[in-house]
Specification:
Structural class: alpha+beta
Order of helices and strands: EEEEEEHEEHEEHHEEEHEEEEHH
Strand order of the largest sheet: 1-2-3-6-8-10-9-14-15-13-12-11
Number of strands: 17
CATH architecture of the largest domain: 2-Layer Sandwich
Distance between the termini: 37 Å
CATH topology of the largest domain: HIT family, subunit A
Number of helices: 7
Shape: globular
Helix content: 10-25%
Strand content: 15-25%
Largest sheet: 12 strands, antiparallel
Oligomer: single chain
Length: 389
Amino acid sequence: MTSEEFTAPTALGAGVVKRSTRLADGRELIYFDDPGTTLGAERAVDARTLDPRPATATMRQDILTGDWISVASARQNRAFLPPAELDPLAPQTPTNPSEVPSMYDVAVFENKSPSFGPALAEATGDAPAAADPPRGLDDLDALGLGRTRTSVGRCEVVCFSPEHAGSFGTLTVTRARTVIEAWADRTAALSALPGIEQVFPFENRGEAIGVTLQHPHGQIYSYPYITPRTQRLLDTIDRTAPDLFQRILEFEQQGPRVILQGEHWTAFVPFAARWPLEVHLLPHRHVADFAATSPEERDELAPLYLRLLRGVDALYDTPTPYIAAWHQAPVHRGRDTARLHLQLTSPRRAADKLKFMAGSEAAMGAWIGDVPPEQSAERLRAAVEGVTL
């Protein structure tokens, strides 16, 4: 495939270049090239013969809570811990017909087995149309027995590197900055899609979390509703103060749980941490999502976030499993009050022990903490102080 068969390259911040194309079944594939990349403009065509894209999944409403549950049976067929030579996120080779046709720096593509899928046939005509899409937030907020809607949305895979093994924390500062630029670009693009109400970038790391691919990657979910956690957050803001996040930031900055602090970001163990290892990372000014961050904030975030993740790994002799969840404000509500923030959690409570969500947590949502947050913060501070980039 030549550069003419791509959409026109787009220059993003920090010298990152974006190149968009399509996979053999019509799914979008986007390359984000590092500043000063050694890759050329030409990329290989995806010459695979692929099955048609699966029909968009269906959501069912839980009448007891109002939550929507997406039933995506196509996910049963996804790859499970394949060997390196069959890594589906590595660049394609003659013996590995993977998802990315060319060598890349960072690559983003639509998930082959998504939990949330297209609302309408896309430009290629290969995406099945949704049978019964949501009719707005008022429709989704209504309660009733046996209510269903098509799981309209989009799920993307974000490949941090062409390497088979690793995580965000193993990236260089330059590559981390490219990923952050990709998060910002995709947040803006996905927020503009019809029917999208919230965009959620995240990274699952480690088999203890349920990761099925060792390749360094994350995901971005775009939901047709405001997620239950965010709905509760917006309610809390309504019951307290519109500047709640600023109050939290100032409260934590004056306390004993700060892990590291820069000009634009502060990382801390929250006052009421649920998990034995939990860190929040907040920008110092109000920003609703990655798309709203400044170049200076993105520049600082790359090395600061790497230091945090490497400090988490330095706690033990083996890599720490975690979920790195980037909470963003909904697309249409709460953008002046809900602030972008990271919630990093790990079930690891000792070198050889994990915390499981048992009866009280899983059934009742009543959490029991195992480690005092101040003790966790002290250990993390010491670990982060020893990190060099």
